[in-house]
Amino acid sequence: MTLAIDGGTPVRTAPWPAWPPPMDHAQRALVTAVLDSGQWGATQGGQACADLVAAFARRSGVEHGVAVGNATLGLFAALRGLGVGPGDEVIVPAYTFVATATAVLLAGATPVIVDVDAADLHLSAPAVEAALTPRTAAIVPVHLAGSPADMDPLNALAARHGLAVVEDAAQAHGAAYRDRPVGGLGDAGVYSFQSSKAMTAGEGGLIVCRAGEVHEAVWSLCNVGRALDGAWYGHPRAGWNLRLTEIQAALLLPWLDRLDDEIDRRNTFAAAVERDLPGDRVSVVPQPPGTTRDSRHLLMLRVHVPFDRPFLLAAMDAEGVPLDGGYPPLGTMPALTEAGARPEPCPSAEAAARDVLWVRQPMLMDDLTGAAHIAEALAKVLAGAARGPRP
Ligand SMILES: *Cc1c(COP(=O)(O)O)cnc(C)c1O
C-alpha cells in the first residue's frame, strides 16, 4: 500500500477534535456570572476560586488547596512551602516536561535528574534511592501521561529518609493509585490547567495538601506573604502574588462535572487502539504497578522495530494521524545543567526519546473510528519504516 507521504491515499482526512472543546452551558453561565459580578480577582470576595479549591481538595482526598497561576508556580510554591530551598537537592524524573525541573530551579534548589523505569517511564524508588545524598530534601514523582507513579514505595523511601514528596499531577486530574486519588498521596500535589491539559482555562494551576501548616505556608507564599487570617498589609513571610483569577476558576469548576466521563471516553479509546495495534511492532507503554484509574492525558506508544524517526513522524502526519515525538531526556538539556541541575545517567529516558511516540489527548477524545485510524496508519507506516531510513 503506497504511503500518503509517497503520494498514496491518506488513512484519514477528517479533522481531529479541537482542544479545548467548546464551552458547555454551565461554563458559559458561570463565566458570564463572574464577568457580570465585577469580581474578577480572587481577593474581591467571589466564590469561584474557593469552590474550585474545595472541589479539588475533596476529590484529592485532602483538606486543603491553593489556586495558582500555573503548575510551574504551583510546584515552586509547594516545594518552598515544604521548606525546600537553596542548598537542597530535589529528585525529578528524566522523562517529563521541563517545568518539573525548572520549578526546582525557581525554588533555588538543585534538580537531580534520575532515570525512569525502562518499561513504564515513571520515577521508581530504586532509582531515587541510588541518587540520594545528605542534601536530598524532596522528590517530585510525575504522574506521567495520566498514569500514577508507583507511590507506595516512593512514599516509604521518603519517610525513611525524611524527604518531602510533591506530586506533579499536571497531567493526571482524576487519576487514582490503588483506588486513592492522586494529589493527596504525597505532602502536596500540583495540577495544571494550561491549554493542553485535561481541564484547562488557557492557563492555571492548583496545589492540594493534607497538613494545615503546609497549607498555611503555601497559601502565604502565593498571597504576597500574608498570613491566612492576617492583615492586608501584614507580610510575615516573603511571598508573591501567584493567584488564579475568578474567570479562570469559572471555566474550570463546571468541568469537574464531566471530567470522569471524559476520562472514561479516553480509556475506551486507548483500549481500542491497543487492541488494534500490530503488537509485534508497536505497543502501548504499560502503566506503573498500582494504577487503578489512568486519566489518559497522552497515549504513549513504544515502537519495537528499527525505524527512522523523522520519517515516521512525517509519514504519520501525511496519513492524517499526527503523532508527537515526546520529551528529550531532561539530563541531556544543556540549559538545565548550565543552570545547576545534576544529571544522572538516563539510558531509559534516552531509549524513550528514540522509541516512544505519543498520541495527544485531543485525538483520544475522538470516536472509535479515530482509534482504528491510528492503528491502521501505524501498521501501514511501520511496514514502510522498517525498510530503514530513506535515501
Ligand atoms: C504542563 C506540565 C507542567 C507545567 O504546567 P504549567 O501549568 O504549564 O506551568 C509541569 N509538569 C508536567 C508534567 C506538565 O505536563
Automatic annotation (TrEMBL):
Keywords: Pyridoxal phosphate. GO terms for molecular function: pyridoxal phosphate binding; transaminase activity. It comes from the Bacteria. Its cofactor is pyridoxal 5'-phosphate. The active site is at K197 (proton acceptor). InterPro entries: DegT/StrS_aminotransferase (IPR000653), PyrdxlP-dep_Trfase (IPR015424), PyrdxlP-dep_Trfase_major (IPR015421), PyrdxlP-dep_Trfase_small (IPR015422). One of its GO terms (biological process) is polysaccharide biosynthetic process. The modification N6-(pyridoxal phosphate)lysine is found at K197. Belongs to the DegT/DnrJ/EryC1 family. This is dTDP-4-amino-4,6-dideoxygalactose transaminase.
